[in-house]
Amino acid sequence: MTVRKTDLQVRGVPVALRERLRRRAASKGVSMSQYVIEILKDDLARPTLAEWFAEVGKLPPVDFGGKTSAELVREARREMRLDD
Hints:
Elements: H1 15-28, H2 32-45, H3 49-58, H4 69-79
C-alpha cells in the first residue's frame, strides 16, 4: 500500500526554535522534516484533554468505600511504609 504524502509549510518559526529542531534532528540522525513528522505523529497519537475527559466520563464510577482521597493516600503510604 502506497502512503500518499503532501508538503506542509510553516511560516513564522522563530529562529531559536528552528535551531533547536535542527539540533534535535541531528542528534537523532534524521532530517528536520523526518523529526517534525515524528513529533506530529506522537502528538496526534495522544487524545486531547477534551477527548480524554470524554472517555473517562464514560467509565463507571469507582466505589472507594466512603473514604476520601486523602484517607486512601494515607493508607497507601502506611502500607508502603512511606509515612515516616
